[in-house]
Amino acid sequence: MLPAWSQALPQALRVLPAADRARVEAQARQWAALPPERREALRQRMAQWDALPLAERQSRRAAWAVWETLPEAERARLRATAAAYARMPEAQRRELAERYAALDAFQREGWGLGAVLGAEWPQLHGLFSLVPSDQRAELLAMLRALDERARADLAVIAQRTPPEERDALRRKLLSMPAPVRTDWLRGQASPN
User: Fold this and answer.
1) What are the extents of the domains in the chain?
2) pLDDT of 99-113, one tens digit each?
3) Residues 6+ apart with CB under 8 A from 145
4) Distance of alpha carbon 4 from alpha carbon 8, whole angstroms
């Protein structure tokens, strides 16, 4: 027997844009094709998710959003690190977890961006910490596209840029083509 909400689904689908309707219909077909025990397992996971405190769900969503922006090389590095962590003795894992928990929010935010940006976050934080959410993904992509020297140049510029000029600097960086950006950073960071 179908749940009550599923009977209203065809009517609700008609009002969706075609792309959204196709996505929902594909998901419904995937759901219907699952064995009953798999569907029940997913229902239980959904109930567990819904039972989490709002702050925990928000934290996990934010972590997933960051994961989605990581280049595949960094994802592979993190998978390998997670596997090594899982093989550690419990006492060592507990010590590492305690050390991470002792970091302030500023440091955890940086390490949440991956190993490369996490190590450089203290120098870049001032320029990128208070970014409007609609610019965040584009800025992270730009940062990840910069080579190590360009990020070092940007760190120098970030330290020199007064807070009231940071938004203009971010907009300028995003408006530049990548090759021009790297050269511009080099010129701005060099002592005159």
Assistant:
1) 1-51, 68-189
2) 988 988 888 888 888
3) 178
4) 7
Q: What pTM value is reported for the model? A: 0.63
CA–CA distances in Å: residue 11 to residues 7, 19, 29, 177: 8, 16, 17, 46
Give the amino acid at 80.
A
- The span from the CA of 167 to the CA of 127, in Å, is 8
Residue among 148, 156, 147 nearest 178 (CA)? 147
Listed in sequence order, the residues at least 6 apart from 102 whose beta carbon sits closer than 8 Å to its beta carbon are: none
User: Residue 4 corresponds to which tokens in the numbers above?
Assistant: 């009550």
Shortest CA distance to 70 belongs to which of 100, 115, 119, 133? 115
Sign of CA dihedral 26, 32, 34, 40: positive
Cβ atoms 167, 155 nearer than 8 A: no
pLDDT tens string 143-180? 988 999 999 999 999 989 998 999 899 999 999 998 89
Counted residue by residue, the chain has a size of: 192
Cα 174 to Cα 188: distance, rounded to the nearest angstrom:
16
